[in-house]
Each structure stands twice: as C-alpha cells, then as structure tokens.
C-alpha cells in the first residue's frame, strides 16, 4: 500500500496555546479519512497545515514521501499537488460551471481539457447545467461543482473542510454518500474534517477523533463505535451510558443490568470497579421479561423510540426500541440486556467538568 499522506509528531501553537499536539497519522492511496471533533479541537488547523496555509512548530508532513512541512521546510500550497473543497465552495461567480471546473486545467490542450471537464460534469451528474452560473444552481449542485473543480487536475490528495455544513440535514446525508461514490470512482485519496459523526460515517474509511488537539483514536467507524479506545471516544461517537460495575473474573462483570458475560479487556479481573459501556441497542425491550425498568424519558426518532430507563439499581440506561412500542414516561417496561461487546473503562471516583457527558 502506498502512503499518500503521512503526519509525524506534528504540533502547532498559536501564542502559548498548543492547538495540535504531537499528532501522527497516515493515509493510504485511495483511502478517505476524516478528522472528527467538536468546534475548536484543532481539526481545521491540521487541514490548513497539510494544505500549506499554516506552518508547523515540530514534526513533519509528507505527501507521497515528499516532505512538504518540517524543519525549515514549508512548501507553498500550490506546490503540494493537493485539491481543496471549502465550506463555502468558493466558486468563481463570474464563470459558468464548465469554466469553474476547467480553472485548474489551463496547462492542458484544449481538446484534453474539454474532455476532462465533460468527464467531471458527468461524474458529478451536472451535464445538463454545464453552462449555468453558480448563482443559478442549488447549494448541493454548487458543492458538486466545487468537488469536480478540485478533482479536475487529479490532485494527489484532496482536502475537504466541513464540505456539507452549508446544506440542510437531508441533503447532507444524501450528498455525503454521493461524494464518497464520486471519490471512490476516481480512486482519490482524501481527508475531510467535520464535527458531524454521521457525515464522517457516511464518507470515510478511517476516522480520527480529535480532542483538544490530540488524536485519540484513528480507526474504522465500526471500531470507533464498538471498540472505543477511551471514554471520550465512547461518548463522542454514538450514544451510550457508562454503568458502574464490579469485575468478577476475566469473563464477567456485575452491573445494575445483572451479571454481563463475555470477553473484555481490563487490567484487573477480581473485584475491581469498572465503568461498562452500554449502547441503546444493548437493551432489548420485551414485555414478557421479569426484569423491569422505569421510563424516565421518551424520544421519538421515527422508526425507533429511544427510552431513558431507570433500573432497579437506580442506574440509568438508554434503550432503542421500534416505535410501534407504545409506553409512556413513568411506566415500567420489561427489558433484556444483550451486550455483545463488553467495553470496560477504568472507574474514577471523581468527575471533573472536562469529563465526557455520559449520563
Ligand atoms: P471549527 O470546527 O470551529 O472550525 P476546529 O476544530 O477546526 O474548529 P481550529 O479552527 O483548528 O478548530 O481552531 C483550534 C483553536 O485554535 C481554536 O481555539 C482557535 O481559536 C485557535 N486558532 C485557530 N487559528 C488561529 C489563529 N490564526 N490565531 C490564533 N488562534 C487560532
């Protein structure tokens, strides 16, 4: 596998605030990566450093094994062979879509250029509006033009900065899947940043969760959700609660849901406290079950309802049940815990304001 993008121990401060901390990651050819984190965690700074708009204090950035940022090296953005898609698309308003896409292809012969533009217009499904101007098309179409323009010169790496943030929720979801298909058809290597995990899941092969400038986990969406490396990732990706538990042996842990059994990784196996990650889908609703929990909150989510439940132990869990289930807050319902992935975290006695917001 060829590594296209390689960041090693990259740090960056603004004044005395370190916003990127010793960050390393690698992206192989044809892979779509995503940096996911809340506002202000440093993801745009990382993207700007890769693009060459920002220098770095320590570490090294390589694109196809060329050092583009490093000790006394800062290759100009236009020398990095990257393409960029910005939040606001940054299309040229005075140029029609064809001319926008052709913008980076001036070095090509006319016939080759026209053919490449036609190919891209087709790829992004805009053949029939090729001569319109940016203000004459929708936000979603503008987004696709920006993508086509960035892909046109066949960059070695494509960077996308919150590419869907100006679109409504429904369009975002549809477009993120479409954009992924377009990138895959071009075998493009891309890195996007977003604070929206649904976009990250829909777009990326590998996702890095960033917290305050630190990359906590670089992994597949599946592993981030099912094997989170720490409590912050567990909280930021998907929903869930941490249930206090007592480890009984190397396969069982006692919690307010009863004794949960399975494989887990945990340094201590006899009698130590732990926090056990319980996802909403780990709790099955079954009226016939003798294990009852009281509904304290009900959230309608279309196909499903998410109940917040209080267990007899007084611990709280969430449960995702089909929305045909008609129970109201205050009622007790039968549940069966079915925890497929037992994820345990160290239990801390004190909670700081910086702790994740697991219920
Ligand atoms: P958002 O999603 O809101 O854009 P982000 O995760 O992309 O957030 P950055 O834009 O990388 O975060 O900003 C990280 C931190 O660095 C923030 O506290 C921000 O205020 C600060 N910062 C960014 N650029 C500069 C700059 N040029 N000068 C000083 N501080 C900056």
Written overview of the protein:
This protein is α+β, with helices and mostly antiparallel strands. It folds into two domains: 3-234, 3-Layer(aba) Sandwich (Rossmann fold), CATH 3.40.50; 239-345, Nucleic acid-binding proteins (OB fold (Dihydrolipoamide Acetyltransferase, E2P), Beta Barrel), CATH 2.40.50. Helix content is 22%, strand content 35%. It contains eight helices and 21 strands. The protein has helices at 43-51, 97-102, 110-123, 139-151, 169-185, 197-203, 221-226, 231-236, and strands at residues 3-14, 17-28, 32-36, 58-63, 66-70, 73-74, 82-85, 157-161, 190-194, 206-211, 214-219, 241-249, 252-255, 258-261, 273-278, 283-285, 292-301, 304-310, 316-322, 332-337, 344-346. The strands form four sheets. The protein has a six-stranded mixed beta sheet, sandwiched between helices. It has a five-stranded antiparallel beta sheet with strand order 2-1-4-5-6, covered by helices on one side. It has a five-stranded antiparallel beta sheet with strand order 14-13-12-15-21. The longest helix has 17 residues, at 169-185. It is globular, with a radius of gyration of 24 Å. 37% of the residues are buried. Mean pLDDT is 91; it is low at 350-359. Adenosine-5'-triphosphate is lined by residues 14, 19, 37, 39-45, 195.
List the helices and strands and how they pair.
Layout: E1 3-14, E2 17-28, E3 32-36, H1 43-51, E4 58-63, E5 66-70, E6 73-74, E7 82-85, H2 97-102, H3 110-123, H4 139-151, E8 157-161, H5 169-185, E9 190-194, H6 197-203, E10 206-211, E11 214-219, H7 221-226, H8 231-236, E12 241-249, E13 252-255, E14 258-261, E15 273-278, E16 283-285, E17 292-301, E18 304-310, E19 316-322, E20 332-337, E21 344-346
Parallel strand pairs: 3-9, 3-10, 7-8, 8-9
Antiparallel strand pairs: 1-2, 1-4, 4-5, 5-6, 10-11, 12-13, 12-15, 13-14, 15-21, 16-20, 17-18, 17-20, 18-19
Helix pairs in contact: 3-4, 5-6
The structure holds adenosine-5'-triphosphate (ATP).
Adenosine-5'-triphosphate (ATP) is lined by residues 14, 19, 37, 39-45, 195.
């Amino acid at each position: 596998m060829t590594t296209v993008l390689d960041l090693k121990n990259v740090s960056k401060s603004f004044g005395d605030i370190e916003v990127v901390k010793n960050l390393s990651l690698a992206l192989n050819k044809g892979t779509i990566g995503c940096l996911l984190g809340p506002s202000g965690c440093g993801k745009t700074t990382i993207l700007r450093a890769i693009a060459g708009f920002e220098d770095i204090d320590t570490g090294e950035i390589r694109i196809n094994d060329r050092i583009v940022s490093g000790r006394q090296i800062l290759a100009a953005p236009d020398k990095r062979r990257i393409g960029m898609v910005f939040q606001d698309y940054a299309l040229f308003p005075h140029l029609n879509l064809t001319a926008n896409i052709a913008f980076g292809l001036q070095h090509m012969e006319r016939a080759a250029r026209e053919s490449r533009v036609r190919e891209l217009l087709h790829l992004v499904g805009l053949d029939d509006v090729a001569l319109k101007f940016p203000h004459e098309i929708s936000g979603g179409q503008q987004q696709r033009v920006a993508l086509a323009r960035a892909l046109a010169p066949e960059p070695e790496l494509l960077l996308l900065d919150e590419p869907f943030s100006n679109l409504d929720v429904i369009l975002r979801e549809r477009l993120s899947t479409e954009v992924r298909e377009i990138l895959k058809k071009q075998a493009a290597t891309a890195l996007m940043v977003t604070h929206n995990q649904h976009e990250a899941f829909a777009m990326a092969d590998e996702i890095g969760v960033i917290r305050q400038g630190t990359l906590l986990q670089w992994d597949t969406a599946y592993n981030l959700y099912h094997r989170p490396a720490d409590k912050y990732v567990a909280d930021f990706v998907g929903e869930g609660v941490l249930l206090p538990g007592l480890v009984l042996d190397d396969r069982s842990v006692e919690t307010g849901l009863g004794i949960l059994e399975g494989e887990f990784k945990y340094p201590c196996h006899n009698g130590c406290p732990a926090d056990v990650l319980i996802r909403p889908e780990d709790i099955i609703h079954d009226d016939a079950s003798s294990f009852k929990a009281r509904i304290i909150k009900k959230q309608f989510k279309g196909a499903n309802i998410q109940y917040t439940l209080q267990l007899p132990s007084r611990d709280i869990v969430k449960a995702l049940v089909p929305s045909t289930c008609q129970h109201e807050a205050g009622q007790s319902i039968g549940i069966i815990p079915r925890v497929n992935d037992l994820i345990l975290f160290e239990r801390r006695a004190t909670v700081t304001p910086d702790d994740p917001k697991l219920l």
